[in-house]
Amino acid sequence: MIGRRTTFCSSKVQERMLKYVHLPVYFILITFSQSQNPKCRSNDGGADVDWAILYKAPGQTRGKIIVSNSAGAWVDGAVALTTRAGQSFGVTLEHVIGDNAAIKFLAYNNVPPGMPKVKTKSNSKGLIILQTTPGTDAASWIVHTVPGFPAAKTGYSWPVAENANGHLLICLTIPESQINAIAASLLRAEPLVHYNDIPETETAGMEYFKKLADGQFATVPPYTSRQSIKTKGAPEVTVNVYSKLAASRYGDCRVLQRNIRLIKSPARVGDHDTNLDADLTNWAVSDPGNIFCHIDRPYAKNQTVESAMAVCIDQADIFARFNDIAAQVENCPQ
C-alpha cells in the first residue's frame, strides 16, 4: 500500500511539473501566432489595434501617432521610422518586407521601389494585406504618402531622404470582406500596382479586386466612385472612399456657399512644426462634423485632369487631433 501510494504521489508531481514546463511553451506559441497577422499595431508594435495614424512633420524621424485605443493626444512615435522593430508601421509591415507563407499583399505606389522614373496617372500609395490561414479573417489597408516605400520581400528600408519631408501613414484593420469595395475605389484612382501575391482563392467573387490585380481600369462612365467600408473593431469605424478617373473634372477652391481654408505655415503637430513647402500630405477636416479626409493630390486647378482618391474617416478622436492642427488657418486665395 505504501509503495502504491508513493508511486501515485510521484505521478501527480510529475504531471504537475509537466504542466509547468508546457505553460511557457504554450505562452510562446500563442504570442508568436498573434504576431503573425497583418493587423494595425499600437505605437510600440506590441498589440493589435483597429486603426493607427502617424503624422511625420518635415525634419522629424519619429513623427506623432494616435491609435484606436490611445487617441486623446498626439504622442511621439516609439522609435525612429528608420527602425522596423518596436514601432507601429514597422511591425505591421514585418511580413511585407520579409517572408511569411500565411501573409499575402498587394502594393501600389506611383513611385515604385527601385523604379523612380515610371510614369503613371496616379498619385496613390498603399497596401492591402491579408492573412490566408484557414478560418482566419484578418486584413489591413494602409494608405500613405511615402514614395518608394515599402519594398516587397527585400528587408525594411525607410527612405532616409524622406525624413526632410512631411508624411502621413494610415492603417485600418478591416475584415477581408471589405477588400472588394476598396478595390472598386482604387480602380478609378488608377494606381500603379507593383506587387501582388494574393492568391485568387482568397478573393474569389471579388470582381473589382481581380480587375485591380490585373491592371484593368475603368474606361467608361461612371468616372467617379464612392464606396463605404468599416473597420473590424468594436465599435467599428465608418470610412468613405471617394475616387475619380482623370476623365472626371472637379472644381477649385471657389465652391458656392463653401468657405475652404488652408493651414498656415508653420503649423504645430503636438510639439513638432510642419510647413507647407516640405509637407507632402494633403488632408482636410469638415466644418461642422467629425470627418477627417486624406487626399492623395493637392487641391489645385492643375490637378483637375488627374485621377485622385480621398479616404474620409468618421471618427471623433481622429477629427479632433487633426482639427487641432487646423486651428491656425488662412482663407483660400481668391
From TrEMBL:
Q: Matching Pfam families, A to Z?
A: DNase_II
Q: Does the keyword field hold Hydrolase? A: yes
Q: Which GO terms describe its molecular function?
A: deoxyribonuclease II activity
* Organism domain of life: Eukaryota
Q: Which InterPro entries does this UniProt record tie to the protein?
A: DNase_II
The answer on whether this UniProt entry bears the keyword Repeat reads no
Q: Which GO terms describe its biological process?
A: apoptotic DNA fragmentation
Keywords, A to Z?
A: Hydrolase
Q: What does the sequence similarity comment in the record state about its family?
A: Belongs to the DNase II family.
Query: This chain belongs to which protein, by name?
Result: Deoxyribonuclease-2-alpha
- Organism, by scientific name, is Trichinella pseudospiralis
